[in-house]
Amino acid sequence: MSQWRRILLFLGVIALSFIAYTQFLANAEALTGEQNRFSQVRGMLQLSSDVLRPRPNLAADANIQHVDISPYGVNTFLEQEVEAENIDRQLQLINEAGFVWIRQEMPWFDVEVHAKNDFLDYRNEATIGVRESWEKFDIMVDLAEKHEIQIVARLSSPPDWSRADGNARGGFAPPDDFQDFADYAALMAERYQGRINHFQIWNEPNIYPEWGEQDVDPEAYAELLCAAHDAIKAVNPEAVVLAGALSPTIELNGRNMNEFIYLDRMYRAGVSDCFDVMSVQGYGLWSGPEDHRGNPFIINISRNRYIRDMMVSHGDEEKPIWISEMNWNAVPPESGLPPNYGVVSLETQAEFAPRAYERMEEDWPWVGMMHFWFFRRASDAEKNQTWYYFRMVDPDWTLMPVYHSMKDYIQGQNSQ
């Protein structure tokens, strides 16, 4: 072989190697959602190990209910607003972006504030007088209807009077008598019958402190869910009851319980007939929306396939999953805050969120809806906390890049 042929062969090998390496990097990001090279290589190794694990049974061809809806939702904190004008402005912006749903807490402690069946609020009597506790919720519902927004009402946060020890176990601890909670759920369903038809029972009952300053208890939560479900259905048989959103965690320390184990224990406690929709959280955290890794010890956006697999194994293949919270955390580098939920730039957040909805719509026919976390807080009092930087809109009404990217994506999808 001549020297020139050897040189050409060598250059050919280099070129092919470069092409293969470039293709590997492209596939690595598309399959792992990782941004830097080291994480991509590690992610590909982890992805290759997935072949050693059984594939989740997703029963994608099942007759899945409650998925023939708009998938675009966003979390709101309208109960924090003092002025109705701010509620109206938020809902207008939400509607203009193309979102159809809001997930809004209707805190029990704001309904029966001082005692059961007492709907007067004396907490600010000295400044604004005694108010009817239903007033602000009526305003929310009226304005949501004005802007053609549907509400998923999150029912949680018991009042102190519902527990003999008051607030000793924290404000999220369950009531002593679950029937009191069921009665409150029935009140909500009755007052807003025909206006609110979707009710989520609790939030993240499998982690601290959402079940109070105590160990979590899947059997107790199953009892609470069933009591609320039956009470709501007795008032409105057409209502859709969502199980409380399970938080992804690999912990098993009593106060935090792995969501797969928690859900299995819920099923074993007889919860199958007590909800219409399963709820989960779908945060991307440290990797992007295309992360396909199926390792149960990795928390990523694909993790909820195992929840679906468990539902199928318990005969609930016709029930859907709705994702209650999804986003990436855009903590400013200059804030000095810890990366508790991963960190992306505002620009990357704006890229990732639409791609998460795109993946849901293309790959997960068993997911009916996904709620962005979150739209806006009433003030910036919590800007010293990492989670504040999931917001879509600042308290001063500055729109983050993700607002515009989601608006563009939804409008594009709706025009097809």
Report the CATH superfamily of the largest domain: Glycosidases
What is the CATH class designation of the largest domain?
Alpha Beta
The strand order across the widest sheet is 7-6-5-2-1-10-9-8
Which structural class is indicated by helix and strand composition?
Answer: alpha/beta
Do you know the CATH architecture of the largest domain?
Alpha-Beta Barrel
CATH topology of the largest domain: TIM Barrel
Strand proportion, as a percent range, falls in 5-15%
Helix content: 25-40%
- How many distinct helices? 11
CA-CA gap between termini: 59 Å
In the predicted model, the low-confidence regions spanning at least 5 consecutive residues are 13-21
Describe what you observe in this structure.
With 416 residues, the protein is an alpha/beta fold. It has two domains: 1-50, no CATH class; 69-414, TIM Barrel. It contains eleven helices and ten strands. The chain has an eight-stranded parallel sheet, with helices on one face. Residues 13-21 have low confidence and may be disordered.
Reconstruct the topology from this structure.
Elements: H1 3-32, H2 37-48, E1 72-76, H3 84-97, E2 101-105, E3 120-121, H4 125-128, E4 131-132, H5 135-146, E5 150-155, H6 178-191, E6 198-203, H7 218-235, E7 240-245, H8 259-268, E8 278-281, H9 304-313, E9 321-326, H10 346-363, E10 367-372, H11 401-414
Parallel strand pairs: 1-2, 1-10, 2-5, 5-6, 6-7, 8-9, 9-10
Antiparallel strand pairs: 3-4
Helix pairs in contact: 1-2, 3-5, 6-7, 7-8, 10-11
Give a concise summary.
The chain is of the alpha/beta class and 416 residues long. It has helices at 3-32, 37-48, 84-97, 125-128, 135-146, 178-191, 218-235, 259-268, 304-313, 346-363, 401-414, and strands at residues 72-76, 101-105, 120-121, 131-132, 150-155, 198-203, 240-245, 278-281, 321-326, 367-372.
